[in-house]
Hints:
Elements: E1 11-17, H1 29-37, E2 39-45, H2 51-60, H3 64-67, H4 86-92, E3 96-101, E4 114-117, H5 126-140, E5 147-153, H6 155-165, H7 173-176, H8 179-206, E6 213-218, H9 240-243, E7 244-250, E8 259-261, E9 265-266, H10 270-277, H11 295-299, E10 319-323, E11 338-342, E12 346-351, E13 356-361, H12 377-393
Parallel strand pairs: 1-5, 1-6, 2-8, 2-9, 3-4, 3-5
Antiparallel strand pairs: 2-7, 6-7, 10-11, 11-12, 12-13
Helix pairs in contact: 5-8, 6-8
Amino acid sequence: LFLNDFMHKFNVILLLIDGARVDRISKFPIFQKLQEDGTFFSHMISHSPYTLVSMNSIFTGMYGGKNGINAYHQMFQDPKSGCLTLAEYLSENGWYTCGDAMRLSLVSHKGFKKITSQEDTDDPDFIKTHSGILDQIKNDKKPKQPFFAYLHYPKIHHSIKENIFDKYDDFSEEYFSNKDQNLKNYDTYLEEASNYLEEIYQKILNDDLYSDSIIIVMADHGMGVGEKIGERAYGIFTYDYSIRTFAYFIQPKIFPKGKEISELTETIDIMPTVLNALEIPEKTSSLKIQGKNLLEYINNSNISMKSNSAQNELSGRFAFSETGGVEGPWPSPKEPNVKCIRNFKWKLIHNLTPDNWELYDLEKDPNENENLVDSFSNIVEKLKLKMSDIEKSCNGN
Length: 397
């Protein structure tokens, strides 16, 4: 590529705040600042409530059943043949690609020119480390070459491991009876993450990267604080505290400032949105991306996909999530055994190991406390069909 080919190509900076809860971020000013500067997708659903499957689905725009990374058992593996990652797309189109992952085993290295991790560093300073990576990019890439930087902040996860996973099990009465205190503790971890985010975002502004970059701030999944006995934090069930998440897109030439999109979206939408914003076409020879272009939601934002009317309660978009916990009541690291499908109104969960079902009215019962599976058999059957159709789509091209 000649230098002129790099002109007017946006950088892509993905800041990933591991385990950030969408219902707590409004407590911290940096998230308000991000919304003022960009477009906030406030009702985004993760394909999986743990990092390995979630990140590979984000970087392929596909569910795990399609890209081949659908369980803990697939650590250190690449997505299946014919599945292109975001880093591959960008690298092949002239972008310099680099990343700093939570662990090198959790993200495919395909397409990355350089990928690192701080997993072997004792108490790393991520502000210093990630600021240094942004500085180093200037020396590593060609003049005027656009870059893709994936910067993963994992300290919420580390704090959860140290203060919860290492002290309690998934049925510890002491832990589950102290949800209010657990939430206060969690907020201290999120506050530290917000301080990191504030510093890194300010560096992006100070380095004049703002005008030439698409900045994405998101979480791979949420985090429980003892809402459901059997799951201390994440990875075991598919309740909204762990699968509902968010994303901010900041680039004023593309994404309107101060705009919130509250329609249901999915984390698999990140990749096709970036490709569309950069005018990079999807390869017809590779496996078809399942995510949707979020720019269409901005352009059609006057058309709400939410509806309270009875005839439309199964309308709109449906999101699909699945997990297989390493621990918990039904450990299943080799294949997912908890699956769910949801729109704004209804969520259907299938727990495969005991083979039981849960149905929740998310509008009336957002905390998912009342299982209505025996009360709405017609809804259950329709949602089962939708779940089956989505799973079948993972087996096609």
